[in-house]
Hints:
Largest sheet: 5 strands, antiparallel
Distance between the termini: 10 Å
Radius of gyration: 20 Å
Strand order of the largest sheet: 1-2-8-4-5
Amino acid sequence: MLKLIDVIADEDDRPVTLEQLKKHVQAADFDDDDEQLEIFLDAAIDFVANRTALTLRRSTWRVDRCDWWSGCLNVLLTPVRDVTIKYLDGAGATQTVDAELYRWERTKLGTVEIRFLDAFTSPAVKPDTFNAVQLEIEAGFDEDPNQTGAGDDPELIFPPRARQAVLMLAASWYRNREASAEAELKVVPLAAEALMGQLRVYR
Protein backbone atom coordinates (compact mmCIF):
# COMPACT_ATOMS: atom_id res chain seq x y z
CA MET A 1 0.00 0.00 0.00
CA LEU A 2 1.17 3.53 -0.77
CA LYS A 3 1.46 5.84 2.19
CA LEU A 4 3.65 8.74 1.09
CA ILE A 5 1.24 11.36 -0.17
CA ASP A 6 1.74 15.09 -0.52
CA VAL A 7 -0.89 17.78 -0.16
CA ILE A 8 -1.02 19.90 -3.30
CA ALA A 9 -4.03 21.99 -2.26
CA ASP A 10 -5.63 22.57 1.11
CA GLU A 11 -8.84 24.54 1.56
CA ASP A 12 -8.93 27.20 4.25
CA ASP A 13 -12.38 26.24 5.51
CA ARG A 14 -12.34 24.66 8.96
CA PRO A 15 -14.63 21.70 9.72
CA VAL A 16 -15.24 23.32 13.13
CA THR A 17 -15.87 27.07 13.06
CA LEU A 18 -14.52 29.77 15.32
CA GLU A 19 -18.12 30.65 16.19
CA GLN A 20 -18.76 27.10 17.41
CA LEU A 21 -15.64 27.17 19.57
CA LYS A 22 -16.50 30.59 21.02
CA LYS A 23 -19.93 29.30 21.99
CA HIS A 24 -18.35 26.18 23.52
CA VAL A 25 -15.98 28.22 25.72
CA GLN A 26 -18.64 30.86 26.48
CA ALA A 27 -16.75 33.61 24.64
CA ALA A 28 -19.39 34.40 22.05
CA ASP A 29 -20.08 37.88 23.37
CA PHE A 30 -16.54 39.28 22.93
CA ASP A 31 -13.77 39.04 20.37
CA ASP A 32 -10.66 39.89 22.39
CA ASP A 33 -9.46 36.26 22.30
CA ASP A 34 -10.41 35.44 18.71
CA GLU A 35 -6.82 35.30 17.43
CA GLN A 36 -5.74 32.95 20.23
CA LEU A 37 -8.84 30.81 19.81
CA GLU A 38 -8.12 30.41 16.09
CA ILE A 39 -4.62 29.16 16.90
CA PHE A 40 -6.00 26.61 19.36
CA LEU A 41 -8.72 25.60 16.91
CA ASP A 42 -6.32 24.94 14.03
CA ALA A 43 -4.00 23.02 16.34
CA ALA A 44 -6.88 20.92 17.65
CA ILE A 45 -8.13 20.08 14.16
CA ASP A 46 -4.65 18.94 13.12
CA PHE A 47 -4.18 17.02 16.38
CA VAL A 48 -7.44 15.08 15.99
CA ALA A 49 -6.71 14.40 12.33
CA ASN A 50 -3.29 13.02 13.25
CA ARG A 51 -4.60 10.84 16.10
CA THR A 52 -7.50 9.42 14.11
CA ALA A 53 -5.85 9.21 10.65
CA LEU A 54 -8.91 10.98 9.22
CA THR A 55 -8.74 13.82 6.70
CA LEU A 56 -10.73 16.46 8.57
CA ARG A 57 -10.04 19.34 6.17
CA ARG A 58 -11.19 19.13 2.55
CA SER A 59 -7.94 18.78 0.62
CA THR A 60 -6.32 17.30 -2.46
CA TRP A 61 -3.39 14.89 -2.23
CA ARG A 62 -1.02 13.49 -4.83
CA VAL A 63 0.70 10.13 -5.11
CA ASP A 64 3.55 9.89 -7.62
CA ARG A 65 4.67 6.70 -9.34
CA CYS A 66 7.35 6.00 -11.92
CA ASP A 67 5.12 3.66 -13.95
CA TRP A 68 1.72 1.98 -14.20
CA TRP A 69 0.62 -0.82 -11.92
CA SER A 70 -1.32 -4.05 -12.27
CA GLY A 71 -3.98 -5.34 -9.92
CA CYS A 72 -5.18 -3.23 -7.02
CA LEU A 73 -3.37 -0.16 -5.70
CA ASN A 74 -4.10 0.85 -2.08
CA VAL A 75 -3.69 4.38 -0.75
CA LEU A 76 -3.97 5.19 2.96
CA LEU A 77 -6.38 8.11 3.00
CA THR A 78 -9.79 8.52 4.66
CA PRO A 79 -12.32 9.47 3.40
CA VAL A 80 -11.72 9.71 -0.35
CA ARG A 81 -14.11 11.77 -2.47
CA ASP A 82 -12.64 11.40 -5.95
CA VAL A 83 -9.60 10.09 -7.81
CA THR A 84 -8.00 11.53 -10.96
CA ILE A 85 -5.12 9.79 -12.72
CA LYS A 86 -2.67 11.78 -14.84
CA TYR A 87 0.60 10.87 -16.53
CA LEU A 88 3.50 12.38 -18.42
CA ASP A 89 3.60 11.04 -21.96
CA GLY A 90 6.80 10.29 -23.84
CA ALA A 91 7.22 13.96 -24.68
CA GLY A 92 6.70 15.03 -21.07
CA ALA A 93 3.22 16.51 -21.63
CA THR A 94 0.57 15.94 -18.94
CA GLN A 95 -2.34 13.69 -19.98
CA THR A 96 -5.43 12.61 -18.02
CA VAL A 97 -6.73 9.04 -18.01
CA ASP A 98 -10.42 8.69 -18.90
CA ALA A 99 -12.35 8.06 -15.68
CA GLU A 100 -14.25 5.29 -17.46
CA LEU A 101 -11.04 3.24 -17.64
CA TYR A 102 -10.48 2.79 -13.91
CA ARG A 103 -12.45 2.24 -10.72
CA TRP A 104 -11.87 3.27 -7.14
CA GLU A 105 -13.66 2.36 -3.93
CA ARG A 106 -13.26 2.87 -0.20
CA THR A 107 -12.43 -0.12 1.95
CA LYS A 108 -13.46 -1.01 5.50
CA LEU A 109 -9.82 -0.51 6.52
CA GLY A 110 -9.99 3.19 5.70
CA THR A 111 -8.02 2.95 2.45
CA VAL A 112 -8.98 3.50 -1.15
CA GLU A 113 -8.43 0.78 -3.75
CA ILE A 114 -7.71 1.87 -7.32
CA ARG A 115 -7.66 -0.53 -10.23
CA PHE A 116 -7.72 -0.28 -14.02
CA LEU A 117 -10.49 -1.95 -16.01
CA ASP A 118 -9.84 -4.44 -18.79
CA ALA A 119 -10.37 -1.75 -21.43
CA PHE A 120 -7.34 0.21 -20.15
CA THR A 121 -4.15 -0.05 -22.21
CA SER A 122 -1.08 1.39 -20.51
CA PRO A 123 0.21 4.31 -22.59
CA ALA A 124 3.93 4.97 -22.76
CA VAL A 125 5.16 7.35 -20.07
CA LYS A 126 8.22 9.55 -19.85
CA PRO A 127 11.12 7.24 -18.95
CA ASP A 128 13.27 7.61 -15.83
CA THR A 129 10.78 9.98 -14.20
CA PHE A 130 9.65 9.46 -10.60
CA ASN A 131 6.31 11.21 -11.18
CA ALA A 132 5.50 9.76 -14.60
CA VAL A 133 2.11 8.63 -13.19
CA GLN A 134 0.29 10.99 -10.82
CA LEU A 135 -2.78 10.21 -8.72
CA GLU A 136 -4.69 13.24 -7.48
CA ILE A 137 -7.00 12.27 -4.64
CA GLU A 138 -9.65 14.57 -3.22
CA ALA A 139 -10.39 13.75 0.42
CA GLY A 140 -12.39 15.06 3.34
CA PHE A 141 -15.89 15.19 4.76
CA ASP A 142 -18.94 17.30 3.97
CA GLU A 143 -18.47 20.06 6.52
CA ASP A 144 -22.04 21.34 6.37
CA PRO A 145 -24.69 18.58 6.21
CA ASN A 146 -27.17 21.15 4.87
CA GLN A 147 -25.11 22.20 1.86
CA THR A 148 -26.25 21.26 -1.62
CA GLY A 149 -25.39 17.65 -2.34
CA ALA A 150 -24.26 16.93 1.22
CA GLY A 151 -25.65 13.82 2.85
CA ASP A 152 -25.86 11.91 -0.43
CA ASP A 153 -22.95 9.76 0.72
CA PRO A 154 -23.20 8.68 4.40
CA GLU A 155 -19.45 8.00 4.57
CA LEU A 156 -18.76 11.68 3.87
CA ILE A 157 -20.82 13.07 6.75
CA PHE A 158 -18.47 14.82 9.19
CA PRO A 159 -18.28 12.68 12.37
CA PRO A 160 -19.92 14.49 15.31
CA ARG A 161 -17.41 12.81 17.64
CA ALA A 162 -14.55 14.41 15.72
CA ARG A 163 -16.16 17.84 16.07
CA GLN A 164 -16.65 17.28 19.81
CA ALA A 165 -13.04 16.14 20.27
CA VAL A 166 -11.78 19.26 18.46
CA LEU A 167 -13.93 21.52 20.64
CA MET A 168 -12.83 19.82 23.86
CA LEU A 169 -9.15 20.00 22.96
CA ALA A 170 -9.23 23.63 21.85
CA ALA A 171 -11.23 24.58 24.94
CA SER A 172 -8.79 22.78 27.24
CA TRP A 173 -5.79 24.56 25.69
CA TYR A 174 -7.63 27.90 25.90
CA ARG A 175 -8.41 27.46 29.60
CA ASN A 176 -4.99 26.02 30.48
CA ARG A 177 -2.49 28.13 28.55
CA GLU A 178 0.66 27.14 30.42
CA ALA A 179 2.63 23.90 30.40
CA SER A 180 2.23 23.57 34.17
CA ALA A 181 -0.32 24.65 36.74
CA GLU A 182 -1.00 24.33 40.46
CA ALA A 183 -3.81 21.92 39.74
CA GLU A 184 -3.16 18.69 37.89
CA LEU A 185 -3.11 19.47 34.17
CA LYS A 186 -3.99 16.84 31.58
CA VAL A 187 -2.40 17.49 28.20
CA VAL A 188 -5.25 15.72 26.41
CA PRO A 189 -8.65 15.56 28.13
CA LEU A 190 -9.64 11.96 28.86
CA ALA A 191 -13.01 12.32 27.14
CA ALA A 192 -11.39 13.71 23.99
CA GLU A 193 -8.87 10.86 24.00
CA ALA A 194 -11.75 8.38 24.23
CA LEU A 195 -13.57 10.00 21.31
CA MET A 196 -10.44 9.91 19.14
CA GLY A 197 -9.92 6.27 20.05
CA GLN A 198 -13.39 5.47 18.73
CA LEU A 199 -12.67 7.26 15.47
CA ARG A 200 -9.14 5.94 14.92
CA VAL A 201 -8.50 4.26 11.57
CA TYR A 202 -6.12 1.36 12.29
CA ARG A 203 -3.88 0.32 9.43
